[in-house]
Write a structure and sequence with these properties.
Blueprint lengths: L12 H13 L28 H8 L5 H16 L1
């Protein structure tokens, strides 16, 4: 007849004592501190995901590299215009 014992439990007194000692003396692992987000630098840029119409994107990309800067300049001018 096979005994069904929980394999996690120590089977002898010495193993039980060692398990109890380990449990009583093991320090819990503290979670790593979460770094605070750095303060935003005035005039800095942020990476975002933006969905644009194909025609708008084609308009800004037709002059080649720098199209993201051109979109940014156009949006800045619009914001300044609106005050």
């Amino acid at each position: 007849m096979v005994e069904s014992r929980d394999r996690r439990r120590p089977t002898d007194a010495r193993a039980a004592a060692e398990a109890a000692f380990r449990k009583a003396t093991t320090k819990p692992v503290a979670p790593a501190p979460v770094a605070a987000a750095p303060a935003a630098i005035p005039g800095s840029r942020e990476s975002v995901t933006l969905r644009l119409d194909s025609a708008v994107l084609a308009h800004f990309q037709k002059d080649g590299p720098g199209w993201q800067d051109r979109i940014n300049a156009t949006l800045k001018a619009l914001v300044a215009q609106e005050g």
